[in-house]
Amino acid sequence: MNRQSTHVHFETRALEFFARDVFIACGLNREQAAQSAEVMVAADVRGIPSHGIGRLWRYVNGLKTGLMLVDAKPEIVADTPGSLVVDACGGMGFAISVDTMNRIIRKAETNGSAFGCIRDSNHFGIAGYYAMQALEHDMLGIAATNTAALGLPTFGRRVMYGTNPLAFAAPADEERAFVLDMSTTVVTRGKIEVYDRLGKPLPHGWAAGLDGRPTADAHAMIDNLLHRRGGGIFPLGGEGEDSGGYKGYGLAVMVDILCSVLCGAPFGPQVSDTATSSARVSHFFGAIKIGAFREPKAFRRDMDKMLRDLRLSPPAEGAERVYFAGQKEFEHEAGVRKSGVPLFKETVASLEEIARETGVPMPGVKRCD
């Protein structure tokens, strides 16, 4: 590998097999390991490295320390025709989230819609993966999760909620699906970790220091969050009210209500990370059957018109294109099929260390650039 390269490219399946075998080495059964690897690498495939295989070390540490339990036996807490509450009992978030969303979809097939929560779980990767499970069933998909407290309330300087991502997916026909997958803070902690790994200053307005004012120091900001000294990530919309920061703040609290308060799980500052792993968190899922409202083919045709109108609308001066939510990710995925998954060389170094520790061989490099 050329250490001067910006990215190193790997085949998607090779990365999945590597992550799967690492999880197996850490004690997960083969099915859970394979599902977890697929969801995690899907983030890299869709161009979201902040939630991809670069975070493998967090899951490895979580499994080693026992925060993430390899032998967890999830329990059904509540089960009605239109709702479901599952206690993950400290297990990995990936596989149980896929299974729970599938259960919600089956309920929605009968009832028109269904919603569910998972409590006492662990980080589940990108929320969009689970919302997209509904697409092939002619349904709208919803997924959300709380996270460790990382976000500042408007006018505050102490973290009171997580980055609390929210995803929504709607199918189309000839156009790609509409897939909104967003944190309710300006950025996720994972993206700040990427800047820290690269030694880059944070863009203005992403995060605050101890005084609640903007900071560019990614490393100090992460360290302050870990030790609860103060500071945090601004809500979507940024600092104060002038750019609508209170809207992101409100959405973040809404996610906490859906994921945590609704099923009796910890929320806000009660949820915190450790130096070696992520916090126990809770998730929310929903599926809405389009056929309960109108004929799905007609819905897809109208979605095509909406998305095409957005895509072909005139760009601002200096901009090349207008995108709709999910379009960039689908295009990145198409590029990955040709060139492989691009990983930062710093991420590759982290994987090499995990390979040495677990005895799992590193996948072969497809190319460097």
Key features?
369 residues, alpha+beta, Ribosomal Protein S8, Chain: A, domain 1, 7-stranded mixed β-sheet, 13 strands, 17% strand
Report on this model:
With 369 residues, this protein is an alpha+beta fold. It is built from eleven helices and 13 strands. The strands form three sheets. The chain has a seven-stranded mixed β-sheet, sandwiched between helices. Strands 12-1-13 form a three-stranded antiparallel β-sheet. Strands 9-8-10 form a three-stranded antiparallel β-sheet, covered by helices on one side. β6 and β7 form a beta hairpin. α1 packs antiparallel against α2 and α2 (30-45) packs across α4. It is globular.
Q: State Rg.
A: 20 Å
Number of helices: 11
- CATH level-1 class of one domain: Alpha Beta
Work out the strand percent. 15-25%
Overall geometry comes to globular
Overall pLDDT confidence:
94
Helix and strand pattern: EHHHEEHEHEEEHEEHEHEHHEHE
Give the proportion of residues in helices. 25-40%
Q: What is the strand tally?
A: 13
Based on the coordinates given, report the CATH architecture of one domain: 2-Layer Sandwich
Largest sheet: 7 strands, mixed
